Amino acid sequence: MKDYIVIDLEMTGLHPKRDAILEVGAVRVRDHQIQETMGFFVNPERTIPTEVTELTGITQEMADQGCTPEEALHRVADFVGDDIWVGHNILYDYSFLKQQAVNIRLPFEKQAVDTLHIARACMQEPESKSLDSLCEYLGIVRVKNHRAVEDAKATCALYECLEKTYAITHENMFAPKPLIYRPKRETPATKTQKNHLKELVDYHKIDIDVSWDTLTRSEASRLTDRLISRYGRRPK
Hints:
The chain is α/β, with parallel strands linked by helices.
């Protein structure tokens, strides 16, 4: 495959329903060469965990200046068009974009080749098949680890290396396959949910990090249950 798009995201956490995209990186490949790159920050509308900043170098100030999640999805959709995707554990990145697509009712069905699956099927070494480990093992140089554009470029180099080495003997691993992820649409928290949560927070004098404007029903429900479990209910 000589023409494709590589996608890489940085997020606030591991769960598409609870966490948010921080940064998007993508490269357009034509005839095995990177033709164009795209990279931008996304405002997560929440506080970035300290460990995420330490890993990525993305600060709260950098993220707060980013575009909205909805705008990010449209920018990705415009950039990738109908191209085949390549990514390292690509379903993970796709799940965050797909969740946003479902939330705004935007069709977003893609096909992809996963370099993680290829590496696991074809390579005995290194033991770890993380992007970090594979780049180190294969001598793929990155300027900044865990930054979206640089990781997308590194994944492109990894794919090209894997294709040259294993495509003939493992042809099926390089065939694009549909990305299957079917999340439920996230709807805004109701006024009753927000009031209940605010009353609970005020009663127990708790400081919580929550974006009230973007709070969803499921987030409000989970947070309320967690606070009640830890601090108890508010007397009627």
